[in-house]
Each structure stands twice: as C-alpha cells, then as structure tokens.
Amino acid sequence: MTLWSDIWSGFQVALSTTNLLYCFVGVFLGTFLGMLPGIGALAAVSMLMPLTFYLEPTTALVMLAGVYYGAEYGGSTSSILLNLPGTPSNAVTCIDGYPMAQQGRAGVALFTTTVASWVGGTIGILALFGLSPLIVSVALAFGPAEYFSIMVFGLVAASTVTQDNPVKGLSMVMLGLLLGTVGTDINSGVVRYDLGFFELYEGISFIAIAMGLFGVSEVIFSITESVHKPFNQAVTLRSMIPTRAEIRQAVLPVLRGAGIGGLFGSLPGTGPTLASFVGYAVEKRVAKDPSRFGKGAIEGIASPESANNAAAQTAFIPTLTLGIPGSSVMAVMMGALLIHGIAPGPQLMGEHPDLFWGLAASFWIGNLLLLILNIPMIGLWIRVLQIPYRFLYPAVICLICIGVYSVRASTFDIGVVLLFGLIGYVLRLLRFELAPILIGFILGPMVEENLRRAMLIYRGDFFEIILRPISGTMLGVTALILVWTAWSALRSRRAASGEPAVSVDD
Amino acid sequence: MFRADRGDLLAGLIIAAVGGWFLVGAFDYRIGTAVRMGPGYLPMVFGIITLVLGLAIMLLALGRDGKLPLPAPRACLAVLVSIAGFTLVLPRAGLIPAALVAVMIATRGDRDARLTSSLVLAVCVAVVSWIVFVEFLGMPMPAFRMPAL
C-alpha cells in the first residue's frame, strides 16, 4: 500500500526534532492567542506568520497550522469560563459551556471539549489522508476552464452562504479581487494602480492587508468592547473527570459532530463556524429532551467542539489538493506557501511529498500535544485569562508592526497596515464581514490568469467553458446560489417594507 | 426626511465609489478583447460588478430605518497613531525607541491607564521584542540607531 508508506514517511518528517519543536510552539501560541477574546484564529495566524519566514517551508507550515487548530482549541476555554468566545467558531460553545461552569462543572466541560476536539480533529485528519489522493488524481486533468469555474464557485460560496447579508459579502469579495489587481500584470508587464509607489509594483503586501484588516481592526474593537470578568473557580484535575453517564451522553454527539465538521470543512465557504452551529442544531433536534439545552447539556458542547476541529483539519483538503482556499485562514496558509515559493495545487503532493504528508502527520501530533497542553496545564491557561486586556493590546500592536516590517524591511508596508486597519475598522462598523476580502485577494490573480488562458484556448467563446462538464456544473451551481441570493435579498426587503418601522438596532 | 438605513446607505456609497474608481482607472490600460484580454480588461469587469453591488446595497437600504454606527474615536486614534509612531521612529532611532513610542501611545487608548504602568509595560515590550526578534531570530534591524543629522 503506497498510502501507508506515504503516511509513514509523513510521520518521520513530522517527528523530526525541529518540526516537533515548532509544532509545539505553534499549538502553544495558538492556544494562548485563541483564548484571548478578540483575537481569532485568523488574526493569530497572520500575526505569527512573519516568525516563520526564517524556517524551512515544511516547518513553517507545521507551525502555522498548529497556531490555527490550537486557536480553535483555546477559544473554547474562554467560552466556557468567561462566556466570551475566543474565536467565532466557539461562540456556540458558550450556550451550554458557560452554564456548566456556573453549576461548578467547569472541569468536566473543559475536559469534554478537549477530548471532543481531539476526536473531531483525528477524524478530520483521517478524511484528509483518505480523500486527498483521490481528489489529486481527478484534479491533475483540470485545465484553466475548470480552475476558473471552481474558483468562481469558491468565491461566491464563501461570500454568500454564511453571510447575514450576501450582497455585502459579495461586495467584499469584489473588493478583494480589485485589490488583487494592484501591481504588475504578469501577462503584459504593465503596472496597474501603483499610485506612483514603486513598493506597489509587486502588488500590495498580503501580510500587511491581513494584519491591518484582522489584527489592527480587532484590537480597536476589543479595546472598546472588552469587559473584564474575573474568573475565580478552582479547576482541579480531579474535577475534570466526567461521570460514566456524562461520557455515555457525549460519545454519539462527538461522532456526529466530527462527521458534520468533516463535511463542512472541506466545502468552500462554510468552515468551522457554520459546522459548529449545525452540530449544535442537530444535537438539539435529535435529543429526547431539547429543553435541557442552554442549561448545561453536555451534548451542546461536545458536538460543536468536535465539529469545528474536524472542519479545521478538512479545510486543508481543497487548499492543498486544488490550491483553492475555502476560508480566509486557508487563504493565509496559501499565502505563506506562496511566500516560500511553493504553489499549492494537485502537483504539490507529487513534487513535495515530504511537505504534504509531513504536514498532515504533524496535524495529528499537534492534536495530541494539545491534549497534553489542555488537560494537565489547565491551571496555567486559567491564569492567562486573568491578564487584563489593556496590558496585552499594546504588545499586540508592536508584534504586528515588527512582523510586517520583517517581511521585506519596509516601513511602507507598516503604512499599508495602518491604512487597512482604518479601512477594516470602518467596514466593520458598517457591518461588513472582512474575511471574503482575503479570499478574493489571494484568488484574484489566479482567477484572472486562468480566465485569460481559457478564453485564449476557446477563442473568446465563453460557452465553451460552460459546455465542459465539470466547469459547467460549477458555474451552474454558482448561478443558482446567485439567483437564490438575489431572491432572498428582495424577499427580505419586501417583508421589511410591508411591516411598520421596526428598528433592528436595540 | 426619507426612510433609509443610513449605515447601509453609506456602506453602499463607499463600495460604489471604490468600484467606480477602479473602473475609471482601468481605461488607463489597454482593454483588449475577450480573446486577448489586455491589462485593463478584468479590472474593468470587476469595477463594473463592484459598482453595481454598491448601488444594490444602497437600493436595499431604502425604505427601512437604521442609524449610522458610532465610532470609538479614542481607541481608534490611539491604535492608528501608535502604528504611525512606530513607522516614523523605527528607521530613524531603531527598534527599542520605536517599541517604547508605540506602546506609550497605544496605552492612551484606555481611559484608565496610568502613566507609570504604561511606562513599565513599554520597557517590558521593548526589551522582549529586542531579545526575541533581534537576538534570537536575528532579524536585520538595529536595537538603537543614532539619528542621522
């Protein structure tokens, strides 16, 4: 079996001293940043990305991935103890996790989410191992028309499916695509929208955009919103052990959550947040007594935490096999790969097998490290939660500035961070979701290149693209999503204008 | 006064303006044809779509109520000026002064911050970032630099 030998060689790469060390550093820092309310997985990954430029590509990705799923783990701790979700995908864990902590069952809740996260992550990794070679074998036959269509589908799905206001989501993707056109056009060598700055010839720095939009704007929001709630409940190792009845209640939800998460993670535009909400909704529906939910039901934390960690792992499937990131965190991961000169896509597995399998194996080792980090060391994390935010955010700002500067020793890029911090803050005030901007920005140049090539092949006849089976199906589904979006936008408007004036703001 | 969600009205206006700006800019470059697209072709298409989406957001904002969101000027200003301070000081005086300046300005965003605690925090952040980034990771930036006269 070649699959087994691939997995085996992957574990050999992942277990090298350097990779093991950076995997630990990644999950440790990820857990730390994920626990802090206001810093999500996206901000954590983009803030720590410059630290990895001095590393080998595989080691760099091992560490960044560790930061990502570490943040997903860590976020659940602040959900349970403070009722403040550390990352958006842990928001649903607050509903039953915080009541459990108030009933004095904080230890059991933390233990359950940690084990559920581990099981979910493991099942997600198995899906990654099993599915990736299959997808690669199909994807090797893809031409520019297929790539163009899959990317358009990804962009539309990511900006409409999970958004409250799909029209605003689409406009954020378009903003990302427009920002992606800045810089030298690879086909003609013409420099576009440089505004006279030679620093923009290579395009806007991806890290500067990510840090400005997510790091800086989140810091501004958190300063104004942070409410410091002290937490004074001793969590001992003994109090973490669940009863036999609690274990029995949690097993099936964990497995269902992992299945839901694995599916949603691999689809573009859905990801861990939606997976955790669907996981919760399913448990509430299948429960014999749904009224227990919201009052500390263990199923209500087991399934979402399993789902979001499974999704965090399967999100790597489209990124690594097709080179198409399904979420903004994956867009950052892809940016990191590109900075190291590695183009993700179906050829990645063949050309850099050590990177692909090593990374995949490191996920499992990282998940194991998280289990160790989160159960015996819970006391440390509780102390971290007691650091007031006003001591943290000035350090975060310095970290952002130094990180961006270190990429290419350019103070111009810190200026870009400043500008996008302001833009991000204004857009968030106006209730825009920022994540689609990054996906658009990363995919923009690739959409353009593949469309140009496809149009050259088919002599400018767009119908040729539609008539090809895979690209036609993708574009058809995309069109359906757009029609549904337009219809629901008009319907909600009609509903709103029919009723007497009801202010949405409270 | 007409009924409209003023927040969304402004949001749509901004999006439409950005789309329009890129659309006008696209005509500075060769547009080309669908077969052989010039550098201006896709920026033009993207610009048109963005412009239309912006107008759609504005249209959908009509006929329902909504207020303009209130910004938090103090936090916003402190963070942005702190970054600007770092940018200005780093090339002239080096990493440690830049970090000191950035932290001192950033702590002004919190109404309750005392001067002494800000100072202690600034020194800590400056020293730790010097150790981690310059000494440990070997990033090419001087801890101190004499200002060029």
Distance between the termini of chain B: 59 Å
**Contiguous uncertain segments of 5+ residues of chain A:** 498-506
Note the quaternary state here.
heterodimer
Supply the number of helical segments of chain A.
23
Alpha-beta classification of chain A: mainly alpha
Question: DSSP strand (E) fraction of chain A?
Answer: under 5%
Helix content of chain B: 55-70%
Give the radius of gyration of chain B: 24 Å
The SS-based structural class of chain B is mainly alpha
Q: How many beta-strand elements of chain B? A: 0
In percent, how helical is the residue content of chain A?
Answer: over 70%
Number of helices of chain B: 5
Query: Which chains share the greatest interface?
Result: A-B, 67 and 77 residues
Task: Please describe what this structure looks like.
The complex is a heterodimer of chains A (506) and B (149). Helix content of chain A is 74%, strand content 1%. Chain A is an all-alpha fold and 506 residues long. Chain A has a two-stranded antiparallel ribbon with strand order 1-2. In chain A, helix 2 packs across helix 17, helix 6 packs parallel to helix 11 and helix 15 packs across helix 21. Chain A is globular and about 70 Å long. The termini of chain A are far apart. The relative contact order of chain A is 0.18. With 149 residues, chain B is mostly helical. Helix content of chain B is 66%, strand content 0%. In chain B, helix 1 runs antiparallel to helix 2 and helix 4 packs antiparallel against helix 5. Chain B is flat, with a radius of gyration of 24 Å. The N and C termini of chain B lie far apart (59 Å). Chains A and B meet through helix 8, helix 9, helix 19, helix 20 and helix 21 of A and helix 1, helix 2, helix 3, helix 4 and helix 5 of B.
